[in-house]
Write a structure and sequence with these properties.
The structure is a single chain. By secondary structure, this protein is mainly β. It is built from four helices and 33 strands. It has helices at about 10-30, 75-90, 115-120, 165-180; strands at about 5, 35-40, 50-55, 65, 70-75, 95, 125-135, 140-145, 150-160, 190-200, 205-210, 220, 225-235, 240-245, 250-255, 260-265, 270-275, 285-290, 295-300, 305-310, 315-320, 325-330, 340-345, 350, 360-365, 375-380, 385-390, 395-400, 405-410, 415-420, 430-435, 440-445, 450-455. The strands form eight sheets. Strands 2, 4, 5, 6, 7, 8 and 9 form a seven-stranded mixed beta sheet that branches. The longest helix has 21 residues, at about 10-30.
Length: about 450
C-alpha cells in the first residue's frame, strides 16, 4: 500500500493548522495552559510550490532534510524551545534535522524572511524560524515554517504560556510544524501512562507512572503495594482506568490524575479486567469472569448500569471501540484459539477478522477515522509481534518483531503505535518502543526503569 504525504497541499495544511489553533486557543487558554494565535504570513503561499514526502512500506525512505536554527529573542529560552522542537521532529522519523554547524544563518527570528538561497545551499527543504521572549510574566513564542524551494510561508503561529509550561509550549510548537509539513495532526503534546517495573524478575514492583510522550517528566501515580495492569486514558486524559490486584480478586479502578483519588468500578463477585473508555467517555468496557469464562460488559458511567455484550463459554476480552463508538473489536478463543472479532457496540453477532497463522490478541482501534487500522499483538511460533490490519481483516502488516513485543497503543493522530518489548534474559525487562504505521520508524522511549503496558493520551487540553 502506498502512503503518500503531500507536503504542499497548502489549503489542506492551512485548514488543519486553523483547526489546531481553534482547539488550542479555546481549550488550552481556558485550562491555563498554552494559548495560540495565528501569525500573518510574510508572503502568500503558492499552491504550485510543493514539497512531497512519499513513504512506501517495504521501500527505502529518506527523511526530509530541514533546518531549525537558533531562535532569537531571549537567548536561553530560544535555545531551549528550538532544541526541544528539533528533537520532537527528529523523533517522528519523518525529518532529518541538519547539523547546525552547516547553517550560514545561525539565528533566525520570526520577524524576517529567511535568505532562501543560503538554506537551499545546504539542501534544507524547510526551515523553522522563531522568536521566544518573556512578556508580562509569560513566555511568548512566534514560530514560522518556511518552504525553502517554494520561498513561501507554510504556517505561522504565536503561543503564550507561563514559564512552568515551557516544555508544553515547545511540544505544541513542534505539533504546528509537523502539521504544516505533513498535513497530519501532531502528537507531541501528549502523555503516556504505563506500568513502571523495578526489582528482581521474580519480585517485580509495578507502579502506574505518567510521563511526556518522549519519556520526560515521569511521575508515579501508585506506590507499588499492589500489582497494576492495563492502564487506559479517558478521552479527557483526566482519568485512568486500570486493573489492580492486591488482596482478593483483581478489580478495575478509575483514578483521577490530578487528585490521585480512585474509585472501584463496581462490587462484582469475580475478577474484572481489561477496561477501555468509549470515545465520548460516557461508557467503560471491561471483562468479567464467571465460572471460568470471561464475557464483555459495558457500564454507563453516569448511572453505573451494566449491560452484557457477549454471553458464551469462551474468554472474550481486550475490547476497544471504533472512533465513532459504533463498533467494538475484541479478542476471543470462541473458535478454539485467540482471534480478533468485530461486533456492534450493543453486542450481538461478531465477525472474525483475523485469519493468519498463530494467535491474535490485544486489539486497539486507531483513533483516526481517516486512517482505519486495528493494531494487535500476534503470537506465531516463539515470537510476539506488533502488527496492524484494517477493520475487515485485510492489509495485515507487521511493524515490530524479534523478542517479545506486546500491548500496542495508538498516538492520537493514528500514525504511530507504542508498545513494550522484552528481549528476555535473567536481567532483562520490558522497554517502551514506538513504530509508525508504514514500518519505517522504530525507536525506543527511554524510561528510568523497565516499562510495560503503555497507553497514549489524546492531545492535551
Amino acid at each position: 500500500m502506498a502512503d503518500d504525504i503531500e507536503v504542499g497541499k497548502l489549503r489542506a495544511m492551512l485548514d488543519a493548522a486553523i483547526d489546531r489553533r481553534r482547539f488550542l486557543t479555546g481549550a488550552l487558554a481556558a485550562a491555563g495552559g498554552v494559548a495560540a494565535t495565528p501569525l500573518l504570513p510574510f508572503a502568500p503561499a503558492r499552491a504550485q510550490d510543493r514539497l512531497r514526502i512519499v513513504i512506501t512500506p517495504g521501500q527505502a525512505f529518506q527523511p526530509m532534510p530541514i533546518a531549525v536554527p537558533q531562535f532569537n529573542g531571549d537567548p536561553g529560552l530560544g535555545a531551549q524551545v528550538a532544541q526541544m522542537l528539533a528533537q520532537d521532529l527528529r523523533a517522528s522519523g519523518y525529518f532529518q534535522v541538519l547539523d547546525p554547524a552547516s547553517y550560514l544563518d545561525r539565528v533566525l527570528g520570526a520577524n524576517a524572511q529567511p535568505n532562501f538561497a543560503n538554506w537551499a545551499g545546504i539542501k534544507a527543504q524547510a526551515v523553522v524560524a522563531g522568536t521566544v521572549q518573556s512578556q508580562g510574566g509569560q513566555i511568548v513564542a512566534q514560530i514560522r515554517t518556511w518552504d525553502v524551494f517554494g520561498q513561501s510561508q507554510l504556517a505561522g503561529q504565536q503561543f503564550a504560556t507561563t514559564p512552568d509550561n515551557l516544555r508544553r509550549l515547545a511540544h505544541i510548537s513542534a505539533d504546528s510544524v509537523y502539521t504544516a509539513l505533513t498535513g497530519f495532526k501532531g502528537f507531541f503534546d501528549t502523555r503516556v501512562v504505563y506500568v513502571d517495573e523495578t526489582g528482581p524478575k521474580t519480585q517485580r514492583v509495578k507502579r502506574l507512572a505518567i510521563m511526556d510522550w518522549d519519556g520526560a517528566n515521569v511521575r508515579y501515580l501508585t506506590r507499588g503495594s499492589e500489582l497494576v495492569l492495563t492502564p487506559r486514558f479517558s478521552p479527557t486524559s483526566q482519568q485512568i482506568a486500570y486493573m489492580a490486584y492486591g488482596e482478593g480478586e483483581p478489580k478495575v479502578f478509575i483514578l483521577n490524575v490530578s487528585s490521585g483519588a480512585r474509585q472501584l468500578l463496581g462490587d462484582f463477585p469475580a475478577m474484572t479486567f481489561a477496561p477501555r473508555f468509549s470515545p465520548d467517555g460516557s461508557r467503560l468496557l471491561f471483562s468479567l469472569q464467571k465460572e471460568g469464562n470471561a464475557n464483555l460488559y459495558a457500564m454507563d458511567l453516569g448511572s453505573r448500569q451494566i449491560r452484557a455484550l457477549t454471553d458464551g463459554a469462551s474468554i472474550d476480552t481486550s475490547p476497544s471501540f471504533s472512533p465513532d463508538g459504533s463498533q467494538i473489536v475484541f479478542e476471543s478463543d470462541r473458535g478454539g484459539v485467540q482471534q480478533l472479532y468485530v461486533m456492534g457496540a450493543g453486542g450481538g453477532g461478531a465477525n472474525r477478522i483475523s485469519f493468519g497463522a498463530g494467535r491474535y490478541a490485544t486489539p486497539v482501534w486507531s483513533p483516526d477515522p481517516d486512517n482505519p487500522y486495528i493494531a494487535f499483538t500476534k503470537q506465531d511460533g516463539d515470537g510476539f509481534r506488533i502488527g496492524v490490519m484494517k477493520p475487515d481483516g485485510t492489509g495485515e502488516r507487521i511493524l515490530a518483531e524479534g523478542g517479545h513485543n506486546e500491548g500496542p497503543t495508538w498516538a492520537p493522530n493514528g500514525r504511530y503505535v507504542m508498545f513494550f518489548k522484552d528481549g528476555g534474559g535473567p536481567a532483562g525487562g520490558p522497554q517502551l518502543w514506538y513504530a509508525d504505521v508504514t514500518g519505517h520508524v522504530l525507536q525506543q522511549v527511554r524510561t528510568p526503569s523497565f516499562g510495560s503496558d503503555p497507553a497514549w493520551s489524546p492531545l492535551l487540553r
